[in-house]
Design brief:
Oligomer: single chain
Distance between the termini: 7 Å
Number of strands: 37
Helix content: under 10%
Shape: globular
Mean pLDDT: 88
Radius of gyration: 22 Å
Number of helices: 1
Structural class: mainly beta
Length: 503
């Protein structure tokens, strides 16, 4: 049969379906308009990895799955979360309908994701809850987001811990980890693929690289997850470490669980790729202490301006105007209560020469034995859209910042997991400011809900979500930054005549 003249526009639709894992928007392009020669098409397959939530017998973990409605997305499809191999056969679960204490087999999903636009929730409890490997295809894939939130009532790491389940990759940076006395930090590695992955974990302290031969050539079996205790990789006890995870073969998901004997704990998500300028969005306005860790992986030192994007604009913290980060060494500076009771985001820019840097904040709320910690890694801009799952009518704070120019942003609250009607509001951010916005709440909300952030016009926007819940006088909280949810891929568009392919 003769083949008629066709264009690559049609061909790229099929391309998007098979390259959805690899063709996401690059962080450097986040917030910018797509090139005129490219089409943004919904992904048709994606994967997420959730680390094992806790080693505590009194931990309660909630999972929330949400896929935003995406124009042009495929119909049908499904999403599924299942236990990583090598985990316990019993999650000690209390499924979303079965009630606390009812066991759930590892081959059963922790929840059943609902159609795009509606969150689905599930719960487990105890120390035997495994890591999860998730896949989504068809209409469930574009922007699929899963939030893991754990409450630990007492003991090391007590408080609220949260992490966005993430896709697999081959390199991760974690500034702000620790092997100091009183801290118990694990790097969780999860392999979604059919063959084993080989991983190196490198540690960098205040004096440079730390010898850790036990961190070399670590094997993570296929469809399995491994927690690596950092203090077993070195005898040195240091705070403010930078952890570099690099994959020799295969790919993994990675996150650091940082647990403190006295100050609670949280998940430290990977920082965005090394860059000359960085944004760390959404410092709580009542933060009692903020500590910055920065690391320069290249051969040159970095000199950075430190500024706070406040509700009134960019300001320079007194006594912390600049930061000198020596090459190959982790540099930590205590910024104290830098927000002074107002919303804020940290903005790092080069004073002169641009040198790539990674960075993260450790944030403390409360004082004495009534304090809790969380982390804010440097993050990429929202780009086309970002999504936050597991929000509540009380306790949710959405921070938006536009450090380089005025921007207009649309925020949509989804239907609730058990009922409610979506609501959308639009906000204008002045250049150089951060706003803790009055986020919309679904009408008639029942259960939890999701928030999607979509820039409409103007400069790049950065975002984070804080979830707070006071427990026994402790201001428990967790912070998740909100980069692009990778709901679309950029596919070249051309009208080139392919009639030469006729047969």
């Amino acid at each position: 049969m003769n083949r008629t003249t066709l264009s690559l526009i049609a061909g790229t639709t099929a391309l998007a379906a098979v390259t959805a894992f690899a063709a996401f928007d690059s962080p450097s392009a986040s917030g910018a308009a797509a090139p005129g020669a490219a089409a943004q098409l919904p992904v048709e397959r994606t994967g997420l990895l959730c680390p094992a939530p806790s080693t505590s017998d009194i931990a309660d973990t909630a999972y929330t799955s949400f896929t935003p409605v995406t124009k042009g997305a495929a119909s049908g499809g499904k999403a599924r979360l299942q236990a990583a191999a090598g985990q316990s056969d019993d999650t000690g679960g209390k499924g979303s309908k079965s009630g606390k204490g009812t066991a759930k087999k590892a081959d059963e999903p922790v929840l059943a994701p609902k159609a795009p636009g509606t969150p689905a929730t599930g719960e487990t409890s105890g120390a035997e809850t495994p890591a999860l490997i998730g896949t989504a295809d068809g209409g469930f894939a574009p922007g699929w987001t899963v939030q893991e939130t754990t409450e630990v009532a007492a003991g090391t790491g007590r408080g609220l811990l949260g992490v966005n389940c993430t896709g697999a990759d081959t390199e991760f940076w974690f500034p702000g980890a620790s092997t100091a006395t009183g801290r118990t930090d694990y790097v969780h590695l999860t392999n979604p693929d059919d063959s084993a992955a080989v991983v190196d974990i490198e540690l960098y302290g205040k004096d440079g690289a730390i010898k850790s031969p036990l961190g070399e050539n670590l094997t993570v079996d296929a469809h399995a997850s491994e927690p690596i205790l950092l203090s077993t990789l070195t005898e040195e006890r240091q705070a403010g470490l930078t952890v570099h995870v690099s994959v020799r073969s295969g790919r993994v998901g990675a996150a650091v669980q940082a647990l403190d004997d006295k100050a609670g704990g949280d998940w430290l998500a990977a920082a965005t790729d090394p860059a000359g300028s960085l944004v760390l969005p959404g410092i709580p306005k009542d933060a009692t202490d903020v500590r910055l860790t920065a690391f320069t992986p290249g051969d040159a030192d970095a000199d950075l301006k430190i500024r706070l994007a406040s509700p009134a604009g960019l300001i320079t913290p007194a006594g912390n105007e600049t930061l000198h980060a020596k090459s190959g060494m982790s540099t930590t500076v205590d910024l104290g209560d830098v927000t002074r009771g107002e919303a804020g985001s940290l903005v790092l820019t080069p004073t002169d020469q641009t040198v790539p840097v990674v960075a993260a904040l450790q944030v403390t709320r409360g004082k004495g034995d009534k304090k809790e910690t969380a982390f804010i890694p440097a993050t990429a801009a929202v780009g086309t859209r970002a999504t936050s799952a597991d929000n509540s009518a009380k306790g949710t704070t959405l921070a938006l910042t536009a450090p380089t120019g005025t921007a207009t942003v649309k925020v949509t609250a989804s239907a609730g997991s058990e009922g409610g009607t979506p609501v959308t509001k639009t906000y204008t951010l002045k250049s150089g400011t951060t706003q803790n916005i009055d986020a919309p709440i679904p009408a008639g909300l029942k259960g939890t809900y999701a928030l999607t952030v979509e820039p409409v016009s103007g400069a790049p926007v950065y975002a984070s979500r804080t979830l707070a819940a006071t427990e026994g006088g402790v201001p428990a909280f967790t912070i998740q930054s909100l980069p692009n949810d990778h709901g679309t891929v950029s596919v070249p568009r051309t009208e080139q005549d392919l009639s030469v392919l006729q047969n």
